[in-house]
Amino acid sequence: MNATGLPLGAAALAGALARGEVSSEDATRGYLARIEARNAEINAVVHLLREEAIAAARAADARRRAGGAIGPLDGIAVAVKDNIDVARAPTTAGIAAYRDRVASADAFVVQRLRDAGAVILGKLNMHEAALGATTATSCFGRCENPHRAGYTPGGSSGGSGAAVAAGFCAAALGTDTLGSVRVPAAYCGTAGFKPTFGLVSTRGVLPLSWTLDHVGFLAPRVADLRPLLEVCAAFDRESPYARRGPRILVPKRADPGDLRGLRVGRLANASEAGLEPDVARAFERAVAALARLGASVVDVRLDGYDFTRMRREGLLVSEFEAATVLEADLAADPEGFSAELRAALAFGAKQPAVRAAQAYRRLAGVRVIARRAFAGIDVLVAPTTPQPAFAFAAPVPVNQADLTSFANIVGIPAGCVPFGRNADGLPLSVQVMAPAFEDRLVLDVLEALERAGDGAGTPAGTP
Question: Domains plus CATH for the chain?
Answer without folding.
Answer: 9-232 (3.90.1300.10)
